[in-house]
Design goal:
- Chain A: Residues 49-253, 321-508 form the ABC transmembrane type-1 domain.
- Chain A: The chain crosses the membrane at residues 12-33, 53-74, 86-108, 128-151, 187-209, 236-258, 286-305, 325-349, 356-380, 386-408, 445-467, 487-508.
- Chain A: It comes from Parasedimentitalea huanghaiensis.
- The complex is a heterotrimer of chains A (518), B (230) and C (325).
- Helices cover 76% and strands 0% of the residues of chain A.
- Chain A is mostly helical and 518 residues long.
- Chain A has two domains: 1-34 and 311-350 and 361-518, MetI-like fold (Orthogonal Bundle), CATH 1.10.3720; 47-300, MetI-like (MetI-like fold, Orthogonal Bundle), CATH 1.10.3720.
- Chain B has one domain (27-48, 69-229): P-loop containing nucleotide triphosphate hydrolases (Rossmann fold).
- In chain B, a hairpin with a 2-residue loop joins strand 1 (2-11) and strand 2.
- In chain B, helix 3 crosses helix 4 (132-146) and helix 4 packs parallel to helix 5.
- With 325 residues, chain C is α/β, with parallel strands linked by helices.
- Chain C has helices at 2-19, 29-32, 38-49, 61-71, 88-93, 139-144, 158-171, 175-182, 193-201, 214-222, 252-262, 265-270, 305-323; strands at 22-27, 52-57, 79-84, 97-98, 117-130, 149-152, 186-190, 207-211, 227-229, 236-246, 278-279, 300-301.
- Classes of the chains: A mainly alpha (518), B alpha/beta (230), C alpha/beta (325).
- At the A-C interface, helix 5, helix 10, helix 11, helix 16 and helix 21 of A face helix 2, strand 2, helix 4, strand 7 and helix 9 of C.
């Protein structure tokens, strides 16, 4: 019914998508225009492309494959600490890369806990460095995200449908076929595309865990082109390549993710009648424990090494923490301003290009965006004066793909379910947004805002070129502390950062669910 | 007078023609075989489907380009007539003002409408805590406060039991008698038509036929209807 | 009336502040951080210059140069501080820098004659290890041992590039073979110094590429003598960090004053325990206690800026080839 009247226009959403596209392609164009003729893409770049693709495909596939049983276990089990575990699942994802690498190595490294354990039995230490190490690290980062996205898919199946399935006597397997597989078909392609895009632009993780220049990704090649060769043309070309790959992945995901939603129920509390057999309990328990151990051990390592450094953190670290909170607040607001209209426009069937524009934020190299913005802004304004808005904007655009994955399915079901009723009541435009869309999407808005705030808190973003000397963010201070040999204080600051990100996530996510059942 | 002038409604490979008039204050049952296009007709009237040809007039005014919410029409759907996150009173209040900024008089009107449908004092509840019949009553209370000239029912009571459904239809009939509004109601069940409708529009063979007296039509059904009634 | 006086006083102080000329110095990020030399340098220079010194951090040395290239002649920077001899040739090629007028009695192991850039500190690259473990005496011994090392990527890190130059300066055409032998000792390659050093401290490797001055930090700041730097008998490659004045500066005299201040006793005394490098000019009071414990390489290696620029790309290819096997 694409020709039908709708309770709300798609124009704002299209406008928001254009802003995002302008930021990404505009900055790329700025870099291209500024470039002097350099050398084109060489065999090393193609090798980087190949490695990037292989690791991104493996990482995305494995993250999602593992996330499915974990999400299902979390969806149908209720246990003490479940909410906390789900909140903690967000943590790896929002850690500054350097902190996460060190945390991972404390567990999986040559001198890590597992190797120490193996040594007790006279066994060789774990060989973590290599393609498998890259994939392990990327799964560590992205399994939680995939789990949350898929878990949300499960939660969006209304209680009524599970009730119906239970009434029909559907066992776990029948429930899978009736409800879960169709849901996965809609949710999984998007999750794959997002994680593929994240891994595509990985650099420090891939290099460090990959064990050397074998593990050169496109992003590292961009970095090299920019700072080693100062070959802006090549940097732009590589960044364009990254955009094309991500765009293609997004397009495939949008096309593949088909299927009707399950409609909306009457907000009854969810109760599951399937999966009560002992086998499925053991199965679910296994997955929850495995995921928890895999994700929480490195976090515990980070926390343990951070505690001693927490005492005596300098005032400048606390100031940086305040700055980070400011950046996170602003970028979360910006993200919602962009994402909500975009999600609505997608829900109205103006989808594909907007969804693709939304996901490009992940593929755009922060270095190229930063450089492009710098080239554009430098002639007209002082880059330092714009440090806060620029950082917030770029972080918002980077968080957009996640937000859209979270918001779009819900927006679709709200518009599909209540669009006509609202129109027959002449509830259009702002009243529809205020009275129907926003209240019905509260949980999703809270979740996406929490994710954006946490991401923005942990991201170094484009600070380098716009770094106002007076305006250091917490991740930057962590790097500075490490650069000044203060590893203990850095670990303390990293723990503070982790706590802040988690709190931001927790508060916003909970805020969205508060009284949501009422 | 509601006038459908040379209307052609297309939906994929399916098309429906309608050229008919309905007198104000009539109560029309729209009946016909499943898939004949009963809901399509109602949706086109309500503005959810655009006409490929023709026009719809109410009291001489062309409604074809009017947005659904601006038409003099109140409509109840098969399901999902209430917003689960809003209270009963808010759901009714939407019928007065879609952004729910209601003054005291309007609040009182909502209260009165709830009382009229037998839900006195339930304004603060959420739909999930009501029975199916009560939920239908909330929707009818909203129709009441909307005060539109035309009421379109797309089988909103299909899920209710026979007794409850009869009760709802009687309530609808009472409300219509009070307001003088015109009713068009999709129905599968000839007894519904007999119960409430004085006229019937038969939708069959890609055509919405001009209305006929209910009793006349049902007692001497044309072949298409006969096949459907069995 | 009283308020008026106070207001006038406030106005005049802000006015005085606004009238003071501003000198903008671009440098690398760790220089301006609270733990780097920046805060002390700013305070000391502002006491003598009657100006407002603005230190701007921009990534690391290479990012600094890239930024100057991006900004070109319209740059706000008057001085760039933090390039090294691997970057100076490219920096000069931009034509954006003017000659300096600094003279000093440098304590560098090499004679300094550069007309455009003046040095402010220097150090030797070296592998840092736990003092209780024996260290190899050269690259060949390291390659033959089962010692594990973490190094930095020359494409993204200054020390990483330094190591590339070190092996090239020591072994020339033999460098690819050295790298091939070292490949199985390299645990991994990191993006920057911090990752590598952090990994070493966590025990992921026996040795990490850093500076001979690194143990001084642990000794002086943490009273921890457990870290040592290995001395290699091929000699050690040097990093000389320099600053230069931009030709388009609108504060040319102030920039000259800053460069002169840079080699003065005040500035040079700040360097050792904030930047953890050797000062370019030995301060009157000598080096801080603890620096005398640092190892002294028998031989200093340093490619001239032109040699460095000439061998850079080939050396990178050799490195990539050897370590990508």
């Amino acid at each position: 019914m694409a020709d039908c009247a709708q309770p709300i226009g798609a124009r704002t959403g299209i406008g928001a998508a254009l802003v995002v596209a302008a930021l990404i392609f505009g900055t790329l164009a700025a870099v291209v225009l500024r470039a002097e003729p350099g050398r084109g893409l060489g065999s090393a770049d193609w090798a980087a492309l190949r490695f990037t693709l292989i690791q991104a495909c493996l990482s995305a596939g494995l993250s999602v494959a593992l996330a499915v049983p974990v999400a299902r276990a979390l969806a149908r089990r209720r246990f003490a600490g479940r909410r906390l575990l789900i909140a903690l699942l967000g943590a790896p994802f929002i850690l500054p890369v350097i902190v996460a690498i060190l945390g991972l190595l404390q567990v999986f490294g040559r001198a890590g806990w597992i190797s120490d354990g193996l040594a007790l039995f006279g066994l060789e230490p774990v060989q973590i460095y290599g393609l498998h190490g890259v994939v392990l690290a990327h799964v560590f980062f992205n399994l939680p995200l995939a789990t949350r996205l898929i878990l949300q898919g499960w939660q969006e199946i209304p209680a009524e449908r599970f009730r119906l399935a239970a009434q029909l006597g559907a066992d776990a397997r029948a429930t899978r076929n009736l409800l879960e597989y169709p849901m996965l078909r809609r949710v999984v392609p998007g999750a794959l595309a997002v994680i593929f895009a994240i891994c595509l632009s990985s650099f420090a993780v891939a290099l460090t865990l990959g064990g050397g220049p074998r593990a050169t990704t496109i992003e590292l090649a961009i970095y090299q082109a920019f700072r080693f060769d100062f070959d802006l043309g090549r940097a732009a070309m590589l960044s364009g390549l990254q955009l094309v790959l991500t765009g293609a992945a997004a397009l495939v995901a949008v096309k593949v993710a088909v299927g009707e939603g399950f409609g909306t129920g009457l907000d009854r509390p969810l109760q599951r009648w399937d999966g009560n057999s002992t086998t499925s309990r053991v199965f679910d328990g296994f997955w929850i424990l495995l995921a928890a151990a895999f994700l929480l051990l490195p976090l515990a390592a980070i926390a343990l090494s951070g505690v001693p450094g927490l005492v005596g953190l300098k005032a400048s670290v606390w100031t940086a923490a305040l700055n980070s909170i400011m950046v996170a607040t602003l970028s979360t607001a910006l993200m919602l301003i962009l994402a909500l209209p975009m999600a609505t426009a997608v829900a109205l069937g103006r989808g594909t290009m907007i969804e693709v524009a939304g996901i490009l934020g992940l593929a755009a190299s922060p270095l190229v965006i930063g450089t492009g913005l710098f080239i554009v802004i430098y002639p007209i304004a002082n880059p330092f004066a714009l440090a806060l808005p620029v950082t917030a904007l770029v972080n918002a655009v980077m968080a957009l793909p996640f937000a859209l994955r979270i918001l779009v399915p819900r927006a679709k079901s709200v518009v599909g379910r209540y669009g006509r009723l609202s129109m027959s009541l002449d509830m259009r435009g702002l009243p529809f947004v205020r009275r129907v869309l926003l209240p019905r999407m509260r949980a999703q808005i809270g979740f996406s805002a929490g994710l954006a705030a946490a991401l923005s808190m942990g991201d170094l973003g484009v600070v380098a070129l716009f770094a106002d000397p007076e305006f250091a963010t917490l991740p930057l201070q962590v790097y500075r502390l490490m650069g000044a040999y203060r590893m203990e204080a850095a670990a303390g600051a990293a723990l503070l950062l982790l706590a802040l990100s988690m709190s931001a996530f927790w508060i916003l996510d909970r805020g969205g669910r508060w009284h949501a059942e009422a | 007078m509601l006038r459908l002038e040379n209307c052609l409604i297309e939906n994929g490979g399916f098309s429906l023609r309608a050229d008919l008039e309905i007198a104000p204050g009539s109560r029309i049952a729209v009946i016909g075989p499943s898939g004949a296009g009963k809901s399509t007709l109602i949706e086109a009237l309500a503005g959810f489907r655009s006409l490929s040809k023709g026009a719809v007039y109410w009291k001489g005014k062309d409604l074809s380009k009017v947005a659904p919410g601006k038409r003099p029409i109140a409509m109840l759907f098969q399901d999902g007539n209430l917003f689960p996150h809003l209270t009963v009173a808010q759901n009714v209040g939407l019928g007065i003002h879609p952004n729910l900024r209601l003054d005291d008089a309007q609040q009182a009107k909502v209260k009165a409408a709830l009382a009229r449908v037998g839900l006195d004092g339930m304004g603060d509840r959420k739909p999930a805590s009501l029975s199916g019949g009560q939920q239908s009553r909330v929707a009818l209370a909203r129709v009441l406060v909307q005060g539109r000239d035309l009421l379109l029912l797309d089988e909103p009571f299909a899920a209710l039991g026979p007794a409850l459904k009869a009760e709802m239809l009687d309530l609808v009939a009472e409300l219509l008698a009070e307001s003088g509004a015109t009713l068009l109601m999709v129905s599968h069940d000839p007894s519904d038509a007999r119960r409430i409708a004085d006229q019937v529009v038969l939708v069959a063979d890609g055509q919405a036929h001009p209305s006929m007296e209910t009793a006349v039509l049902l007692d001497n059904p044309p072949p298409a209807l006969k096949a459907y009634l069995g | 009336m009283k308020y008026l006086v106070i207001a006038a006083g406030l106005l005049s102080t802000t006015a005085a502040y606004a009238d003071a000329p501003e000198l903008t110095v671009y440098t690398y990020d760790s220089f301006v951080s609270d733990w780097g030399p920046g805060p002390a340098v700013e305070k000391a220079f502002e006491e003598v210059c009657g100006c407002d010194l603005k230190l701007v951090g921009a990534g690391d040395g290479a990012a600094l140069l890239a930024r100057i290239k991006l900004e070109g002649e319209r740059s706000d920077a008057d001085v760039v501080l933090g390039l090294d001899t691997n970057l100076t040739a490219a920096a000069k090629a931009t034509g954006l820098f003017a000659d300096h007028s600094v003279t000093a009695d440098y304590a560098l192991p090499v004679t300094w004659t550069d007309a455009t850039f003046a040095p402010y500190d220097w150090g030797y690259f070296s592998f840092v290890h736990n003092a209780d473990a024996a260290a190899p005496a050269n690259f060949k011994e390291l390659a033959a041992s089962d010692k594990k090392i973490v190094i930095q990527d020359p494409r993204s890190s200054t020390p990483g590039l330094g190591l590339l130059m070190w092996v090239k300066a020591a072994y020339g055409d033999e460098a690819p073979a050295i790298w091939a032998d070292l490949a199985d000792n390299v645990v991994t390659v990191t993006k920057g110094w911090s990752e590598a050093y952090g990994m070493f401290l966590e025990g992921e490797a026996d040795m990490v590429l850093s500076y001979t001055t690194s143990p001084a930090y642990h000794l002086i700041a943490e009273e921890d003598s457990s870290k040592a730097a290995a001395v290699f008998d091929e000699g050690h490659y040097m990093q000389v960090e320099v600053a230069g004045k931009l030709a388009a500066s609108d504060q040319s005299e102030l920039a000259d004053q800053f460069l002169a201040f840079m080699v003065s006793d005040v500035f040079q005394s700040i360097i050792p325990t904030t930047n953890w490098m050797y000062p370019a000019v030995t301060p009157a009071e000598g080096l801080p206690n603890g620096f005398e414990t640092l190892v002294e390489p028998g031989k200093s290696l340093l490619l001239t800026e032109d040699e460095a620029a000439a061998v850079r790309d080939a050396a990178l290819d050799e490195w990539l080839t050897a370590l990508s096997q």
